[in-house]
Amino acid sequence: MKTLGLINFEGDVLKLKKIAPNKFSILDQHDEIVSELTLKEFCEWIEGKTSITDSDNVDWFYTYQPETAKTSLFDIITHLMK
Questions:
Q1: Nearest to 52 by CA among 66, 35, 77, 29
Q2: DSSP state of 62
């Protein structure tokens, strides 16, 4: 399945890839898998309850990012439903 950019600063910093009906990989800007999450865990990250650490050891909180850098929730939900 294709990836979906989640946070973008002149290129995707974090990307989402669905690997099973309730399991997702998060890849960073180096295409390294930095997290594997259930749907519940992914939603907790989107809500700002958790962070994801990339391979450069940077913590990413989705809610802290500017709106212009984040993929819309509509696009995320559409991707999750595929």
A1: 35
A2: G
In which region does residue 52 sit, left (phi positive, over 0), alpha (psi from -120 to 50) or beta (all else)?
A: beta
8 Å CB contact between 79 and 15: no
The alpha-helical segments, DSSP class H, found in 1-82 are: 39-46, 73-81
CA dihedral 9, 26, 56, 7 (to 10 degrees): 10
Record the tokens describing residue 46, joined without a space.
């989107």
Predicted confidence (pLDDT) per residue in 9-63, tens digit: 999 999 999 998 889 999 999 999 999 999 999 999 999 999 999 999 999 999 9
Q: Which residue has the tokens 């946070």?
A: 7
Nearest to 50 by CA among 25, 4, 66, 42: 42
Could you tell me the residue range of the domain that residue 24 belongs to?
3-81
